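Quick one: structure tokens for this chain, please?
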Amino acid sequence: MTIRSALVPTPRAALLMAAAAPLALLVAVLVPARWTLAPLLGTLVLALIVIDALAAGALKSITIDLADDVEVGMEKPIGLIAVFAHGMRRAVDCALASDARLFPAGRALAALAQDSAQTWSGTVPLTAQRRGTGEIEQVWLRWTGPLGLGARQAVQPVERSVRVWPNVAPVRSPALQAFLRNSEMGLIARRIRGEGTMFEALAEFQPGMDKRRIDWKSSARHAHLYAKEYEAERNNQIVFAFDLGQAMCEPVDGQARIDRAITAALTTAYAALKSGDKVALFGFAARPQLFTPFASNPRHFHRLQVAAAGLDYLPQEPNFTLALATLAGQLKRRSMVVVFSDFTDPTSAELMIESIGRLTARHLVLFVTMQDQELAEIAGEDPAAVGQLAMAVSADGLLRQRALVLGKLRQIGVQVVEAPYAQIGTRLLDRYLAIKRRGAIG
């Protein structure tokens, strides 16, 4: 059984027809008695196009190898295999139609390569741009005849769903896995235990230990150096609060800020679950959108990933007052609240500072934001014209306002994590581990 296809001319055929038209006109002018040669020439060209298209052969089947799940920002190629019944083909091209979550323009093009006489295959690179469920709707296949004048074209519905998840590649990284594995096996447990706040036991002093931990009374009594060991905090509550508003939906290097924030949060959340802490996610824009139950076991990490995948992109201004007041009312004990947000003007930033300030009275608050590298580049360029000078001055003013807002947050006791988007996950994880070693959450 073959798939129905239509015969279509190629660009080469159009050029041939365009070249034949002046020739036919020249014949009609120079030899009027032979004017019938002109339509005969056109008919010959059309016949060549049809014969070439028919020589390309019929399409028997097209198979699409498509993953059901992908992660945002990660490339996942789609495989295509086309099998033809007979004939000879010069080239085979395909196109996939989808929504904007999967392909930026809603479509992707690719050329297939010949594997055997009747089989052609190729791949279409897929890099999902947004979380959610995307649809691959249709596939078009176009193959030309041996002369390249005629082609056949077929369209087939696909109707396949692709679930786009948050990117958790840093969680699978060998470096993080080795760190957490060593921590579980006790290779670095001594260091964590030695920098907590709850006294656990005395241990013989070893080279490399902090000399401030030496218990001089016990050492004098036993005529040997002993150091105090403290138990690190466990069972802390950590809430990752995401601003889902307009500023966080803007792209940074082709990916929304909120998606990069979710990746950083899930990486730290995984480390926190491995360390014995509890983790919850909170999302808000004009009103609160999501507040998950606290996960307390690494086996529950998938629940957090599923919840993060459901955080929507909302073109709204965030209401920090309502959102953070709602969050504070839900937290029954001191917690570490990590707020991911961004700001564009001082007025909205003042409201944000006021709302976050109320949380600091009872909770440890971290404010995480990504450096605006585009503004920094504009402000740092040497202006070659008056227009560039005006842009540089404006960019410098915006950076100063940004620094002023972050300075105010630090003044009210908020810990600020600001870094380029590629480093935000590492910086947040380092800050969490430093806070945990100091025992500053509980």
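The radius of gyration is 32 Å.
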